Structures are given as structure tokens and as C-alpha cells.
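Entry 14. Two folds queued back to back today. First construct below, sequence then C-alpha cells.
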Amino acid sequence: MNVLTSVAPLRYPARELSGRGWTPARLLAGCLISLMWLPVGFYAAGAAGAGNPPWLADLDGWLYLAGLALGGVPLVWACGRLRRMGYPGAAWMAFGVLAPATVMGSVYVAPLGPLWVAACAAVASLPAWLPYGLGCLDRRTRRRNSRRIA
């Protein structure tokens, strides 16, 4: 037995990429999903209601859908925070309930413009932000109470 191989291993242990770590492909897929769920839902709801929506026929329609993409980010952030807090089922349930409601609300306020749609989507994501806010408030209270005891 060689002294060098008994002290230092010849290979480094393999990193686990399937766990909680981000790979470039997962990061890109997450960014695309977080940006595109509201425009895709908006377009699908418009196609179901109007038959053939004319939004993608010209540059203005594409710019309108790009403006809608930013409106879906708060709900995705809130669901991501819920997942990181240890509630993955609640995150999926919140997204499953709030996303269709956000899409229907965005179709309703669409004639007012993309800023109103973004505001509607931000307001619709507030129920998903509520557990995160209460969790932060609970941590602050526990930290403050622990300082009083010590």
C-alpha cells in the first residue's frame, strides 16, 4: 500500500447535482417559467374566449405580452419563498389556486393596459406572501423574546 494513496484519495467525491443545488439548465428553466406563465395563460384564455386573438400578429402584441411577463414574477417569488420555508405542497397549492385566478383577473383588466395587469397580479399574489410575512414576524418575535430571557 502506498503511503500517498492511504492519506489522500485519488478522486474527489462526486457532487450531487440532483439535490437542492442549481444547475444552469434548472436556472434557465426556472427563469423562463417564472416569466412566461402569465403571458401564456393570458394568451390561452384570450384564445378560448375570442377564438383567435390578434395579439401575436404585430410587434405591439409581443410588447404587450412582454409587459405581462413581469406581472407574474411576484406570485412565483412568493411560491418559491414558501417552498424554501419548508412548505413545498403549500407552494404548489398556492400557485395552482392563485395562478388561474390571476389569469382571469388579468383578462378582465387587460383593456386598461399592462401596468394594471401587473398591479392585479401583484394583488392576487398577496395571499401567497402572507405565510412568508407571518414567518418573518414570528422569527423576529422569537429573537426578541430570546434576548429578553438571556
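Second construct, same run, same settings:
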Amino acid sequence: MVFLGIDWGKIVSVPFWLDVNPGELSDYFEKLFFVVLVVCYGAFGLLYLAEKRLLAQRNFIMVKFLRKLGSFFITMAVSFTFIFFFRYEAIPVLGGRFWVLVWLISGIIWLGFIVRYYFVEVPVQQKSLEQKQRLKKYLVK
């Protein structure tokens, strides 16, 4: 089945991903790589600005979460920049398709940990902070 110039039957085969000399990128994939890079770097920039705003509001719990998310996006962007460079230059082994697969799987796992942190750790930290503030109002200053 060919869709968008891609043979999707070939994509699920193991030799396709383990080919150490995959050849040159098509124009479509160059644009796709570029869009992923712009999204990652743009998300990092927006998170940096949001982090500065929350830091001014002294919301340190959410600042810590945004720092984790920002480090995720900048790390994924820089590593994908290297993958794109090696892939664009068609360098054997370093330009292999399996690096994109490794990048994608590691990104999904890391994002899973960040989502877990947001839904499990952040509410616990906020409850602890509220409890400390509630008890602090009874202390003599």
C-alpha cells in the first residue's frame, strides 16, 4: 500500500529499520524532519517564557514541572537535529533509520514519565504545600 509516497508495507519490516545505509531523504521527509525540529524548539521557547512568568508568581511546583517538560523538548530537539544531520548527509550507521525509531521510543517513554509526574507527584506536592501554609498561619512570626 503506497500512501504519501511511502510503501507502508515496507515500514513494518525489520530489515527496513536496520538498514545502516538507507540512502538519501525524500523532499517530503526533509520537510517533516524540519517541522518536528521547529515544533520542539518552539515548544521549548514557549515553556521557557511560561516558566519565567510562573517564577515571578512564585509557583515553584509548576516551575519544576515546566523545567522537566522544557528539558524534554530541548533534548529531543538537539538529538533530532543530530539525527537529521546524519540522515541528510547519508552517513552510514549514524544516518540509519533505527536512530529515528530509538528517538521516538525514548521520547514516548520519557513523556510517559513526565505525564506520570504531572498527574501523580504534582497533586501530592500541592496538597503538602497547602497543608504547610495552613499550619504556618498559626505560627508566631
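Quick look at the second one. The helical segments are 8-11, 14-18, 27-56, 60-88, 98-136. Residues 98-136 form the longest helix (39 residues).
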